[in-house]
Every structure is written in structure tokens, then in C-alpha cells.
Amino acid sequence: MALGAELRRLGRHSVIYGLGGLVSRILAVLLLPLYTHYLSPADYGRIETLVALTTVLSIVLRFGIQPAFFRFTFDSPDPERRRVVLRTSFWFTIGTSTAGLAALALLAEPISQALFGTGDAWDLVLASGVALWAQMNYEQLTAVFRVEERSLAFVAASLVNIAVTVAATVLLVVVWRQGPLGVIVGNFTGTLLVYAALIGYRREQLGLAFDRGLLREMNRFGLPLVPSGLLLWVTSFSDRFFLVTLADAAETGLYSVGVRIASAMVLLLTAFRMAWPAFAYSIADDGEARRTYAWVLTYLTVASAWVATGLALLSPWLVDWLAAPAFAPASRVVGPLAFAAVAFGAYIVVAIGIGREKRTQFNWVVTGAAAVVNVGLNLALIPPYGMMGAAVATVAAYAVMFVGMAWWAQRIYPVPYQWRRVATAAGAGIGLAAAGKLLDAGLPLAIALTVVYPLALASLGFLLPVERAGIRRRLLRRRRPLSSP
Fold first, then answer.
1. Do 149 and 139 meet the contact criterion of CB atoms below 8 Å apart?
2. Which of 28, 256, 261, 328 is the most buried (most CB within 10 A)?
């Protein structure tokens, strides 16, 4: 397949995944008033604590089986072999998630005591165990849609899940007044119902087949990704812990609002991450894969740097529109956090070479180095600089993670990445954002500097001759109807 067609395929699936993610985020925002009206701050805090707990448990209990599922599915074009990979992953996930649910059920009261100082929240711990089981198995089964590159089917399942979840949550919390238990039960109700429907839909592909030898190979691939995932979680979330400990709750609140504004980058990168593994592994020819990966890194950097530039320049007004005046200082951290996400997106791309060669044993070293940098800089910079210190620590950690993974992956699976163009795309965005902050000339200039990003790239010699020719052809096609009689 031609490079242009390959990139359009990746872009199409990313857009579809992004639209599904956008609906999910909008509904999450719309549900926030419901939560805050019917739940006390303590109730909401308990829910968030248990979400954090189950997030960590899911990383551990998956044993890296989902990335292994993507990689091993494309080892062979034989449908029967792929079915064995699916079945082995399916039953392994059921086994580990059931073990996690059993552990939470047996230890519900002690866990409640340890987390909240009382055993009365045992029912919330138990419900969180069911939610953990449902989410792990649902995600493993919907991953089949991603492997098949059926993004529309994946999003359809997600939207049905969201619709049922919202309805169940409203009934449980508003009508039946079940409080935090209603929130947790409502959230896993949709997941369980859609999961049951998917089992029926996939019944011909699922079965009792379980290949122990294959599982050992998949575990060798996936297990090193578990500590890597945990260390990445530390890099992503430890800053709020350090802020509340080394600064104060007010500084943490300001930083959290900045994180929310910058999370527009998360929507872009999540959409890309959903489409990327199946797309990347589906390219069988190594030469074609290397060439495609190189172009993907360049264009993802352009897209993410442009969004980050806009967020950095427009952050004062975004915070003003979305938060109370007291939160205005939060705009200062939006730019750094947005550009940190650009580095993370680049990391996602370059890491694929490690997966392609099944050499994941040292991924944790890279993410571990980033976590050490993050923790060290948080400790050093938060006391004197507050939330800006935390933002700088995040940027540095993701930059280290990208550089470390790029170096390691190039040793294992060399790809002719367009490093000059990647640096130009990122540097142009940083330069425009810095210029806007220095000039501080108001909203019109901020919008103008955001819009001018592609022209800045062109003036810096970013465009290749083939790209300039393509742009000219498109412009001529648009002008022809106007000049025709």
C-alpha cells in the first residue's frame, strides 16, 4: 500500500476513536454537577481513591497481555493461529481479573480500614472489585475490534456502554439515592452488559482453547511492560502528591485546573494510541514499516505541537472561560504540560520498534529513569517554584523518556526518522508560544500566532519538495471550478 494511503488509514481510525473519546469526556463533564450535588466531598474522595487503586491493580493483573495480544496476533496470517492468540488472551484475562476480584472481596474491610480509617466502606471496595473485573475483560474483548481495525464498531460499543452507564448512574444516585455505591455500580453496569453482548457476538471465535506455550511467550513480551506501566503512572500522577505535600492544597488545585485544560492533548494522543498498535504491526514488510513509522513520527509531532501551541497561547482565556477568576494563575502551567504531551506522543511512536522485535525487557529502565527525574525535580523545584516546578519536572521526565526510548529502539530496530523535521515542528511551536507570552498582546495576537504555525514551518524549510508539490496540486484543484466558464 502507498505511504499516503497508509497514513490516511491511520488518520481515519484515529479520528473515529477521537470522536468516541470526545463524547465520553463531554458526558463526564456533564455528570460532574450530578456527582457534586448528590455526593459529599468525602464520598467523591473515596470514589477517586478507589479508582486510583483499581487503575494500579489493572496494570499489574493484566501482566501486559493486551500489548502482547496486539503483537502476537500479527505474527501469523493464519486465522486459526490468530484465534488461539485471542482465546489464550481471553481466558488469561478472565483468570487474573477473577483473582483480583476475589482478593478485593476477601480483604474488603481491611482495605477500607487502611484507605479511609474505617471498615464501613467495605461495600465500595467490593463494588470496585466488580468494576475492575468488568473493565479488564471488556477492554480485552473490545481490543479485538482494534486488531481488526474496526474503529466504528469499537466506538459503537463504547457509546452503548456510556449510554447505559449514564442511565444506570442517574437511577442509582438520583432516584434511588445510593450515594457513592450507586456511582461505582452505575459505572460498571454498562460495561458488564456490553461485555455480555460482545461474548454472544464473538461466540464463534471464543472457546476453551488455551495454549500454555503461547502464553509463556506472550508473558515474556508483556511482563516487562508491567513495571514500565507502573513507573509511567508515577510520572503522570505523582506531581499532585508532591504539590499537596511540599506546597499546599491551593497550589494543587490551581495545578489540577491547568492539567484539565492541557488534557485536550490527551484526547488527541488517546485517539492515536487506540489506532497505532494494530496499524503498526499490520505492516508486514520491514522496509515499508520503517518508512511509515518515520513519517508518522513527523506528522504526529506536527499535529500535537500545533495543538500544544494553541493551548499554550490561549490558556489565559481558556482558564477564564472554564474556571472561576481565582483559578487564573493555572494558565501558567498549561503550555509546559501540553508540550510534555508532545514528547509523550513521540515516545509512543518510537517505542513500537521495541514491540516489533519483541525486546521489551528493558522498557522499564527508560520509564524508570523518567520517573526518577520526575520525582527528583519535584522534590527540588516545588518548594521554591510551586506548580511551575511540578510542570518543569513533568516536561523533563517526558523528554527523558522520549530520548531514552528513541536511543534504545534505534539500537534494536533502526528507523530513518526525520529528526531535523521533528525538531523543527516542535521548536516552531515552542517559539510561537514563547513569543506570544513575551508580547502579551491579547487574544487576537494569540489566535494569530496559533493559526500561523503552518506558515512558520514553511518559512523554516520544513516542507519537502513532494509536500510542496502536493499542496500546489490541491490549491489548483480548488481554484479550477472558479475559473471555469
1. no
2. 261
Residue 211: which domain range? 1-223
pLDDT band at 239 (very low <50, low <70, confident <90, very high): confident
180 and 284 housed in the same domain? no
Average pLDDT over all residues of the chain: 90
> Same structural domain for residues 242 and 143?
no
Per residue in 144-172, pLDDT (tens digit) is 999 999 999 999 999 999 999 999 999 99
Same-domain status, 249 and 342:
yes
Within this chain, do residues 289 and 183 fall inside the same structural domain, yes or no?
Answer: no
Question: Last residue of a domain, which of 164, 199, 223?
Answer: 223
Q: Which three cell numbers stand for residue 472?
A: 500546489
Shared domain for 231 and 379, answered yes or no, is yes
Q: Which of 329, 335, 281, 327 is nearest to 305 (CA)?
A: 335
Rounded CA gap, 111 and 458, in Å? Answer: 57
